[in-house]
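For the sake of clarity, the format in which proteins appear in this thesis is described at this point. The record quoted next illustrates the convention:

___
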Amino acid sequence: PTYEERRQRTAALYERIANADEAELDGPSRHALICKHRYENGRHPHICPRCFTYRPVCVCDVCSPPWPLPAGLEVVVLMHHDEWGLSSNTGKLAELTMAPARILMKGLPSHDAELAALIEDESVETCVLWPSAAERADWPSEGGGGDRTGGEGRDHVTLEAVQAMQARGRRVAIVAVDASWRNARRMVRKLPPSRVRRLSLNADVLYGDGGPRPSLLAPLRAYNGAMRTELGGSEGSCVCTIEAVVAAVSALGHDAEGCEHALAVARRKVAVVSRYRG
């Protein structure tokens, strides 16, 4: 849609929401309308809908073809609607640089149904990437009796356990939540712990031999010290969505060249967006 068309659609949407009462349009229905609007109209007409980069400096040409993941491994980026279309977003690059990978917007009914189908598929082990320090603080174990130390329990799974599942031929889906810290916690709490276990990656897996370091996204987004401490990183260290995804799939057998391809595209996007913003 053009800028004017999008402006008119946005105005009509919020007028409808403002004038509707609770009986006509409850909270989930409002959220679904907002998500549908963002999905269909984007955030801004000058943002590429595939890579979420400004159209004049779009990075789609360097994304293809997506690198095949190991057999039986899939990536799902569960994105909050506020992230959809942000030029600083890196999660969208996952589906452009590796396959199979898909982006699902939380709150969009069709995408919620797709996620629910994946979670209910008993042939797939679905794991959500989640920092160990955060899960100890924010996640009471199911029934109050599970392991809260970051080890394997009813609602946790270790990287070694996932690797063993792969060795036995079990399909694995890695879910990466793409949202602000506050929204991410809310989104992860809604995932059923009996079907989606939390997978934490230690510093060696996240950063390699070089140890903790600033995220490649740091030039575009500020990460405050409180968040870094809560996530278990040292001052000045953090990871963005694509970095976390690459660390996970690398540990689960993804080709090193494929991992570097995804990170190189992300670095290219950060560089061109930084220059474009001036």
Remarks:
- The beta strands are 67-68, 73-79, 98-99, 101-105, 124-129, 156-157, 171-178, 196-199.
- The first helix runs from residue 3 to 19.
